[in-house]
Amino acid sequence: MDTSTHPEYTLRRTGRPFSKDFRAYFERDNVPISPFHDIPLYADEQKGILNMVVEIPRWTSAKFEISRDKSLNPIAQDTLHGQPRFTTHCFPYKGYLWNYGALPQTWEDPRHAHPDTGTRGDNDPLDACEIGRAVAATGDVKRVKVLGVLGLLDNNETDWKVVVVDVADPLAERLHDIADVEAHLPGLLGATRDWFRIYKVPDGAPPNRYALGGEFRGREYANGVIKDCTDAWKRLVEGKAERGEISLDNTTLSGTPGKLDPGDVELPPDQDLSPAPVEQDLDEWYFVDRDALGLCENVESLENGRL
Fold first, then answer.
1. Span of the secretion signal (predicted)?
2. Is beta strand 126-130 parallel, antiparallel or unpaired with respect to 157-166?
């Protein structure tokens, strides 16, 4: 089926997958680009169609992400305790429930506290959960439309999760707002909220919390969040916000501090390497006692709209 992935974006991979050396660099028409800064947020702004960079395909657990601090922001694998990170499986889930990735040209400002969450941004591009039925691949650039958003508080930082759907998905014509998701995909929103609450518990972290009473907000609210984070990214890339360790290198944004001449950029040759051995047991399931964590009553209350 047509998954609406942009054919003009290609990857150049180096290092073995599932190793600390793995990188996936982006090119467009053979020109090196940053998936953070050079891929436009909108594929068609008039129609409300956005671009989404897929980092983690549905049902997988390798924690690939756009690297903030590396030149041209290639996708790399996050690390935990010095080793490539794989998200643990918490029963009854195995892997991510959606194609998970980022909205380019957005940034959650760590120096700005959102008035509805009371906490500052997590210093990353906005996260997106694409709920269509097709399983994507790391590095795909999908055309999606916005349905809603969930306000996660992760490590006391605002970490919005924008719910989107591939515009080519068979259900896309029936999904226009967050209420449509519950109507046509019953249980997915509740599972999403539960997953994000507990997925770090096996690693020794406490359960995550939510802003806005744990309620999903609809498309209009989500678009407001996206606009805020787009404005923040513009300040960042124009050198008007403190960037910290973030690389602003790009090849398309004239007049910005990070603008590079594409002719001066040399990417490593593309390598098709076998994955590195994985020490972690990727088939292990963790059973999270929600009663002991005091979560069951809260989850039920959330789903009944009482919290």
1. none
2. parallel
